[in-house]
Design brief:
Blueprint: H1 2-20, H2 24-30, E1 36-42, H3 61-68, E2 71-77, H4 83-92, H5 96-99, E3 105-106, H6 124-136, H7 141-145, E4 151-156, E5 170-171, H8 196-207, E6 212-217, H9 229-235, H10 242-267, E7 274-280, H11 303-306, E8 307-313, E9 321-323, E10 328-329, H12 333-341, H13 357-362, E11 366-371, E12 374-375, H14 378-381, E13 382-388, E14 392-397, E15 408-411, H15 427-440
Parallel strand pairs: 1-6, 1-7, 2-9, 2-10, 3-12, 4-5, 4-6
Antiparallel strand pairs: 2-8, 7-8, 11-13, 13-14, 14-15
Helix pairs in contact: 9-10
Length: 443
């Protein structure tokens, strides 16, 4: 009898214990913590213009440190060398011909410029409305992240009207053309006039206990080149001209703001729970004798306009490595991040997960396309199509818009500044790459 009482007691205790124990499986699900995601975007900076990329004078200690702590691809590319379409591709993961933000300003037949740039014309905003409306139909990274409860914040450069058009929950850019909205308005103050708004967004997400996506795309080192005086004085003795010194100083000023952002996240104890991704929207080569850029850079099909280091850092999760061989694209940023956080990847993305070795090994090439600054349709505005492989790069001019230009072929591994056109003596390579390009071109 005593044994029966003891057994009954044990069963009762067990039943009570089991009833009081929470469902550990569901509890685990509730405690899943998704990492924050921070996109850092430089604006108008050549791939050569970083300390870790070997520049003799420009100092970028914060970006250099980020490069050492990241899976850093030194042979990254943007699909086009102009800010508006480049940024649209970064946030959507698709080529300009797919999101239809082909360039900065839309000009229709019959539009009168009167000798002035399109962006100053009264009809500019009206022409751009269909571009924005079409973009709003697309899925962006902030749209994808809503499924996991992310808050998304926009700061800096943003061409597509109001920040909400990109799926952001909060942002600095109002996009109202009647109040001077074109490519960032108040958003362009971030970095140049401090970082407080950005910090406030981070604090808001932490207060709400939400993972956040931060778009930090400051108007740096973009012109106007008006760096802090101390930085200018630092570079004046080293540079061939004041114009170059100002640009070099702007690169370091941008680097300082990157350090401020990264340090703030670290101070909040969020470093190990944050994915950092770095890219530049397009290149820039500063002319020595005036404030403009050399045509070999921005808006060109050359590496000084299209190439950029691309970095992925997640402390403890991504093994740091400097990768100087694999070709990657800014189109890879969305699919790579989606895979990192376990979100299903849509089939219509144009990039790959660059941290997946199998996908990297299957990649045959990365591609580019360059349009007129003042665009209308793909057919009317296309200037160049580009294909990059290891080791060759083919530049194919559109005969309709560039009738006097020849096909160009470069060994970008041996000739990174693209000084030796190999096309005349390598017709088989040209033909092979052109065929690859034609097969992948879908419009």
């Amino acid at each position: 009898m005593k044994k029966l009482i003891v057994i009954a007691g044990l069963v009762l205790v067990c039943l009570i214990s089991c009833k009081e124990q929470p469902d550990k499986t569901s509890d685990k699900k509730a405690q899943i913590q998704y990492p924050n995601i921070v996109f850092i975007l430089s604006d108008d900076q050549a791939w050569t213009d970083y300390g870790f990329m070997g520049h003799e004078h420009i100092e970028t200690p914060n970006i250099d440190k980020l490069a050492r702590e990241s899976r850093t691809f030194t042979r990254g590319y943007v699909p086009t060398s102009l800010c508006s379409p480049s940024l649209a591709s970064i946030i959507t993961g698709v080529y300009p011909r797919n999101h239809m933000v082909l360039a900065n300003d839309r000009v229709l037949p019959g539009d009168e410029k009167n000798g002035k740039p399109a962006w100053t014309q009264s009809w500019r905003a009206k022409n751009y409305e269909p571009v924005i409306e079409n973009f709003k139909k697309l899925n962006t990274l902030p749209d994808f992240l809503k499924e996991k409860g992310y808050l998304s914040f926009q700061t800096g450069k943003w061409w597509i009207g109001n920040y909400e058009n990109g799926g952001f929950d909060y942002g600095m850019t109002h996009g109202n053309p009647n109040k001077g909205g074109r490519h960032g308005d108040y958003g362009l103050e971030i970095g140049r006039k401090g970082m407080d708004t950005l910090y406030s967004y981070i604090d808001l997400a932490l207060e709400k206990k939400k993972p956040f996506f931060m778009w930090y795309a400051p108007f740096l080192p973009h012109a106007p080149h008006n760096p802090p005086e101390a930085l200018l004085q630092k570079y004046l003795p080293k540079a061939p001209s004041e114009y170059v010194a100002k640009y070099w100083a702007m690169c370091e000023w941008f680097d300082q703001t990157c350090g401020d952002l990264i340090n703030y996240i670290d101070e909040k104890g969020e470093t190990e729970n944050t994915i950092f991704v770095y890219v530049c929207d397009n290149g820039w080569v500063q002319n020595e004798n005036n404030s403009t850029y050399d045509p070999v850079s921005k808006r060109s099909p050359y590496d000084l306009g299209m190439r950029t280091p691309i970095m992925y850092k997640w402390k403890g999760k991504i093994t740091p490595e400097i990768d100087a061989q694999n070709l990657v694209s800014s189109l890879d940023m969305v699919p790579t991040v989606l895979d990192l956080i376990g979100l299903e990847r849509p089939d219509d993305l144009d990039g790959i997960n660059v941290l997946n070795e199998a996908e990297q090994n299957k990649r045959e090439a990365v591609y580019g396309e360059i349009y007129e600054h003042d665009f209308n349709t793909v057919e009317e505005s296309l200037n160049y199509r580009i294909v990059m492989t290891n080791p060759y790069k083919l530049i194919l001019p559109n005969p309709e818009n560039k009738p006097n230009e020849k096909v160009q072929l470069f060994n970008i591994y041996e000739d990174p500044l693209e000084e030796n056109n190999l096309a005349p003596n390598n017709k088989e390579v040209v033909s092979e790459l052109q065929q690859i390009l034609e097969e992948t071109w879908v419009n």
